[in-house]
Each structure stands twice: as C-alpha cells, then as structure tokens.
Specification:
By secondary structure, this protein is mainly α. The chain has one domain. It contains twelve helices and no strands. It starts with 7 loop residues before the first helix and ends in a 19-residue tail after the last helix.
Length: about 300
C-alpha cells in the first residue's frame, strides 16, 4: 500500500474531529452512568458497550478493506488491551462523577506516566526539560484534586488511575505501532477488549433501557471513528506535530458538559487544566526538537482517551 502524501492541514482536521468524538464518548458515559437515561449503568457495562460496538465498526472496515491479519504479537496485545480496558473503565467511572473538563484534563497525564514508565521498562533516558514538563503537569493534577478543600473530588482519583493505566498502555502501543498495521492493531485490540469486558460485566449486568442501548452504541461508534481519524492523521504528519492538537478534547468536553448538563468549569478547573496542558505542550515541544515523539508515539488509539478511550 502506497503511503499517503504528507498533509499537515488534513492531519490537524482529522485530529480535531477525533477529539470531538472522544469527548462525545465521555459525555455519553456520563449520561448512562447517571440517572439521565434510566437506572445508572455500572462503568464495567459502559466499557463493555464501548468495545462491543467499536468492534462491529472496526470489523466492517477490515472486511471492506480485505485486510489480511498476520504476525499478531499476542502477548503485547494482551497487556496493551488489559491496561487499555482498565483505563477506559476508570475514565468512564470518573466522567459519571465529576465535571468532564476535569476528568479529561487529568487523563492528559497519561503521556507523563508513559514517559516515567519508559525509564524502567524501555531503558529510556529523561533529560531536564522532560522532567520539568512532567513536574509541571503533575502540579496541574494537584490543583485539580483540590487537596484539603471541601471541594475535593474523590472521583479525580479514578481519573488519575485511568491516566496511569493508559500510560502503561502507551508503552505497549509503542512496541506494536512499528510491528503491525494500524487497522490490524485496532481489530485485535477491540476483539480482546470485548472478551475481557464480557467476563468482567457478568456480575453487574443489567438490562439497559432503549436510550441507554442507543448511547452505548454511539460510544462504540464514536470511539471507532476517533481511532480511525487518529490513525490516518498519524500517517499524514509527524506525531510530534499532531499530538498537541489532541488537547482540543478538553475544549469539547467543557462545551458538551456546559451545553448538556449545565456544568461550567470554575477558576480552579481552568487553572489546573492550563497547567497540565502547559506541561504536556512542553513535553510535545521537546519531543519535536528531538525529531521524534517518544512518550506519545504513533498510536492506534488516542488517549482512550480518552477519553479511552
């Protein structure tokens, strides 16, 4: 297959569309995880719906492209999917219990955790600029956690755990990204994810209301669309150029939360988010200067992310 010609403008457009879809998944997770569409669904059931319907979309794409599946690194996929499923489930749990903008901002710490984990797991060396970026982002997290205040958000710890899990996932994504075709990675990831989610959801399963079924389907479709946009964007421009635009997810999340649930981010939320984005931006700038994105490599799934994502 002939690689597409570099097109930074199209790459940015695709990333912005992907971030809009990622924010939609957390918005819908908040809706089905609360009393808005029926009795609240457990986060394990929400993540099950995400993998089920995303797999349907990805399988249709694979069938249409007649993609040949070969050379699957099952061990890497297994670890990647396990941590990815955990990150997505924790993120959905956080989104149902706190402002979407706060949950999304905390999820942006995943590249920082990926950088920290790359030191013992991949033997990478981290210089002063990257340490500064990491400490800056972690300081923003501290602001969003609101320690010692009456406004302390326990749910923020769920978002933090999601970021750690997605940081571990990024390590295995990095190993897979240069070893297998992107669409194959998506197919295997969603297949294994559905298997894990199905086993996990059995104890908490409840029959969703019609509106909840529709929301679960939209979560899966939106995530699959985001993944496909992200994959194609990464093929059109360098990761170090594209990745900073993923912070648009925070803007979409804040807009959706305000429009649908009437939740307006306060000054503390904007301050914490700005500090995290500054740290992430510094990290992305440093990776661009090094000529490659180490902590945010070409990945088949954005911040599942997101928001896992």
């Amino acid at each position: 297959m002939t690689p597409p010609r570099p097109s930074p403008a199209r790459a940015v457009a695709l990333i912005l569309v992907a971030t809009a879809f990622i924010a939609v998944t957390t918005l819908l997770a908040k809706a089905v995880g609360g009393p808005h569409l029926g009795p609240p669904l457990h986060p394990l059931q929400v993540s099950h719906g995400r993998f089920l319907f995303a797999l349907i979309v990805i399988a249709l794409v694979v069938a249409a492209r007649r993609q040949r599946i070969a050379g699957v690194h099952w061990r890497w996929h297994g670890f990647r999917t396990l941590f990815g499923w955990g990150g997505v489930t924790l993120m959905f749990a956080a989104a149902a219990r706190m402002p979407l903008s706060d949950a999304t901002a905390i999820s942006f710490l995943s590249p920082v955790f990926a950088m920290l984990l790359a030191i013992p797991l991949l033997g990478e060396r981290v210089g002063p600029v990257r340490w500064t970026a990491a400490l800056l982002a972690l300081a923003g997290m501290g602001v969003l956690l609101r320690p010692g205040a009456e406004a302390f958000q326990p749910a923020a710890l769920l978002a933090l755990a999601a970021a750690v899990s997605m940081g571990v996932e990024a390590i295995f994504i990095k190993r897979l990204s240069g070893a297998e075709p992107p669409v194959q990675i998506l197919l295997v990831n969603n297949s294994l994810g559905l298997a894990i989610a199905t086993l996990a959801v059995v104890p908490v399963w409840q029959g969703p209301a019609p509106g909840q079924w529709a929301a679960l389907a939209l979560i899966g479709v939106a995530m699959a669309a985001a993944q496909l946009c992200f994959v194609n964007a990464m093929r059109m421009a360098d990761a170090s150029f594209v990745v900073p635009f993923t912070y648009a997810t925070l803007v979409w999340a804040a807009l959706y939360d305000a429009a649908i649930f009437g939740v307006i981010p306060d000054a503390v939320s904007w301050t914490g988010a700005a500090i995290i984005v500054a740290g992430g931006g510094l990290l992305a700038w440093r990776e661009a200067g090094r000529g490659r994105a180490v902590t945010t490599p070409p990945a088949p799934e954005p911040g599942e992310r997101a928001p896992g994502a």
